[in-house]
């Protein structure tokens, strides 16, 4: 949980601010997962801070939701070119990829469970979080 919280602070995901009038702040929660190997032994534990995006209202909190995907024919064409030209093929994984994407709309979130704060302060999100309706659409590939 400390690593996830450090990543959120490092990417300047939010600022504490007073909730403006006529605005609402969604809740959040920690989600825990145990990653296992093929033999079912524990590989490591994962934790993500999830915004409760199911409370977002269409037209008010967001206009569109979609996820960027590659056309299969593009991927197949790339693989053919790599094979014919004998190029090495690599892949990479970007850790905390959602946390690096800017949010285009104003999103306010209640402070984390156990987070000490003054009573009327909320998080103003600068970057996407898991669980937001627009997190996938803000992902830049």
From TrEMBL:
Keywords: Membrane, Transmembrane, Transmembrane helix. The keyword Membrane applies. InterPro entries: RVT_2. The chain crosses the membrane at residues 71-90. Residues 12-135 form the Reverse transcriptase Ty1/copia-type domain. Pfam families: RVT_2. This is Reverse transcriptase Ty1/copia-type domain-containing protein. The lineage of its organism: Eukaryota, Viridiplantae, Streptophyta, Embryophyta, Tracheophyta.
């Amino acid at each position: 949980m400390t690593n996830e919280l450090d990543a959120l602070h490092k990417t300047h995901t939010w600022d504490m601010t007073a909730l403006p009038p006529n605005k609402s702040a969604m809740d959040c929660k920690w989600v825990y997962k145990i990653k296992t190997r093929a033999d079912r032994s524990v590989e490591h534990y994962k934790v993500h801070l999830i915004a409760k995006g199911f409370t977002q209202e269409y037209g008010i909190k967001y206009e569109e939701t979609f996820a960027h995907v590659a056309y299969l024919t593009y991927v197949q064409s790339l693989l053919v070119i790599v094979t014919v030209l004998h190029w090495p093929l690599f892949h990479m994984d970007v850790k905390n990829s959602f946390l690096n994407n800017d949010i285009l709309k104003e999103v306010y979130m209640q402070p984390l469970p156990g987070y000490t704060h003054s009573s009327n302060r909320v998080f103003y999100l600068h970057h996407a979080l898991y669980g937001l309706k627009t997190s996938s659409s803000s992902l830049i590939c």
